[in-house]
Amino acid sequence: MRRTPRFASALVTLGLVAAGLFIGGSANAATNRLEAENAVVSQGVVESNHAGYSGSGFVNGDNASGSYTEWTVNAASAGSSTLAIRYSNGSPTRTANVAVNGTVVSANRAFNSTGNWDTWATVSITTNLNAGANKVRITATTADGNPNFDYIDATTPGGGGGTVTADQLLAKVTSCSQISNGKYKTDEDVSTATVSVCQKTGAVFWKADMDIDCDGVRTTQCNENTDCCFYPDTACHTTGDSPLNSATLPYVVVPSSSSIWNYTSKGIGCGTVVAVIYNGKIEYAVVGDTGPTQIIGEASHKTASDLGIDPDPSTGGTDGPVTYIVFTGSGTKVSAVENHQQAVTLGQQLSQQFVSTN
After folding, report:
1. Residues of the chain with CATH 2.60.120.260
2. CA Rg, the chain, in Å?
3. N or C: lower Cβ tally within 10 Å for the chain?
4. Where are the beta strands (DSSP E) in 242-316?
5. May I ask the CATH architecture of the domain 28-157?
């Protein structure tokens, strides 16, 4: 199957949000691990030069009052939450204000010395969260700055229990509340437009085929020789302003804005997380490119490969059905479009929330 040759066009800019990972919980709560390296940092850097941290690193804030680290915590419903903040502090006690959605809930909270920078401890705070996205910011209140932050384990209300499966997601998209003004074709050479864009709480979705987008960085898999329609750019770029790599990054193509549907009307843009479902598997990808205005159903070489679909840009793809669930609302974009792990961790959390609210 073949897609229409097209040029990349601009998408909205990346939103800086933290990613969360569902790691447990009961029928009424979920514990979400939010790594500090995925958070928004003001006056600080991500480092990995001390032992014992989780994920890919930790945040070392500047020695300055007002420096902060901010996470986004998504909750399926409003209610009480426990925030377990993991930190290390090789110096004397440091203090910080902990604020939730702009309101300080713990003033001058003490982060006592842990003896050295390789030893980690936890400070826990109980607060209330709103349904949806919540901003948790820890701001240094002295010139010593914050301690090093590893992650927050946030127990959120209404989370449900267990890792979301493909069947659970598909059960929530069996009916369509159409928001597109008409329908899309799956390929240029088909005569009938059959695919609607549908809306659910917290997401839009469509069910289509999958064509292979091999644009962006030239690789062994994606170049002018393997793909007749190869174009060395993508609508979305990395944080270093380079085109995306279709062979290594799972991403999805959305139709360019038209009278049929304007994806930006739902806040969708570069880095928006997408759950792509095929043959019982879920691939968490990001929005990474735009396509023809009248065709839908396209994803990167890596997306197809991970789902067991032939990724060859000339002969590969599948007639599906492939289900694309694009999460909408605050806190649905990764901070680095090229960071697949961010998409996975945030996608798992958003899927849990989607299942709980639909």
Report:
1. 28-157
2. 21
3. C
4. 251-255, 273-278, 281-291, 298-300
5. Sandwich (2.60)
Task: Assess contact for 324 and 274: CB atoms under 8 A.
Answer: yes
Host H or E run for residue 342: helix 340-357
Closest-CA residue to 355 (of 252, 258, 275): 275
Q: What is the rounded distance in angstroms from the CA atom of residue 217 to the CA atom of residue 231?
A: 9
Hey, which bits of 228-344 come out as E strands?
A: 251-255, 273-278, 281-291, 298-300, 318-327
Task: Check whether 119 has a pLDDT greater than 80.
Answer: yes
Token pair in block for residue 210: 């999958």
Q: Would the pTM of this model clear 0.70, i.e. be above it?
A: no
Q: Which residues contact 174 (CB under 8 A, 6 or more apart)?
A: none
Cα–Cα distance measured from residue 344 to residue 163, given in angstroms and rounded to the nearest whole number: 12
Q: What is the pLDDT of residue 30?
A: 62
Query: 334 and 348 in contact (C-beta within 8 Å)?
Result: no
Model pLDDT, residue 32: 78
- Predicted pLDDT at 132: 78
H-helix or E-strand containing 168?
A: helix 166-171
CA distance 93 to 144: 9
Per-residue pLDDT band for 19 (boundaries 50, 70, 90) equals very low
Could you tell me if residue 132 is left (phi over 0), alpha (psi between -120 and 50 degrees) or otherwise beta?
Answer: left
| Residue in 122, 50, 72, 107 with CA at minimum distance from that of residue 330 | 72
Extract the tokens encoding 180.
């597109």
Query: E strands within the chain?
Result: 21-25, 29-35, 40-42, 44-47, 58-61, 68-75, 79-88, 94-100, 103-111, 121-129, 132-140, 148-157, 198-200, 203-213, 251-255, 273-278, 281-291, 298-300, 318-327
Phi, psi of 75 (to 5 degrees): -125, 135
Q: Which residue type occupies 214?
A: C
For the segment 26-39, what is each residue's pLDDT rounded down to a tens digit? 334 567 788 898 88
- Tell how strand 251-255 and strand 281-291 pair up: parallel
Banded model confidence at residue 268, pLDDT cuts 50, 70, 90: very high
